[in-house]
Amino acid sequence: MKIEILGTGCPKCKKLSELTQTVVQELGIPAEIKKITDINKIIDYGVMVTPALVIDGDIKAAGKIPSKQEIAEWIKEKNNKIKINRVLYITKEDK
């Protein structure tokens, strides 16, 4: 799973990064967390207000700090989709 924190380094961006790292550690889900600070790259996502949270290419929040619970739900949801896709792939390979 790839998680990106979009922001220029403001206090809210740092808080979102800390929250996200905490949630990933607590859930024990493997994830690559990357901070995107280049304003042109942020704009390429279509994000005009920061901080923003992107999980596997999907913008989950922009312009606010989501709650720890929201972040956890989004990560769990993505993780479950990854597991389902792996099971489907393995099942097709077995046939």
Write up what this structure looks like:
The protein is α+β, with helices and mostly antiparallel strands. The chain is globular. It has 3 helices and 4 strands; from the N terminus they run βαβαββα. Strand 1 (2-6), helix 1 and strand 2 form a beta-alpha-beta unit. The chain has one domain (2-94): Glutaredoxin. The longest helix has 27 residues, at 68-94. The mean pLDDT is 89.
Topology:
Blueprint: E1 2-6, H1 11-27, E2 32-36, H2 39-44, E3 52-55, E4 58-62, H3 68-94
Parallel strand pairs: 1-2
Antiparallel strand pairs: 1-3, 3-4
Helix pairs in contact: 1-3
Please name the defining characteristics of this protein.
95 residues, alpha+beta, Glutaredoxin, 3 helices, 4 strands
Q: Give the biggest beta sheet.
A: 4 strands, mixed
Tally of helical runs: 3
Shape summary: globular
CATH architecture: 3-Layer(aba) Sandwich
Q: For the largest beta sheet, what order do the strands appear in spatially? A: 2-1-3-4
How many DSSP-defined strands?
A: 4
Beta-strand residue percentage: 15-25%
Calculate the mean pLDDT score and round it.
89
What is the gist of this entry?
The protein has 95 residues and is an alpha+beta fold. It has helices spanning 11-27, 39-44, 68-94; strands at 2-6, 32-36, 52-55, 58-62. The protein is built from 3 helices and 4 strands; from the N terminus they run βαβαββα.
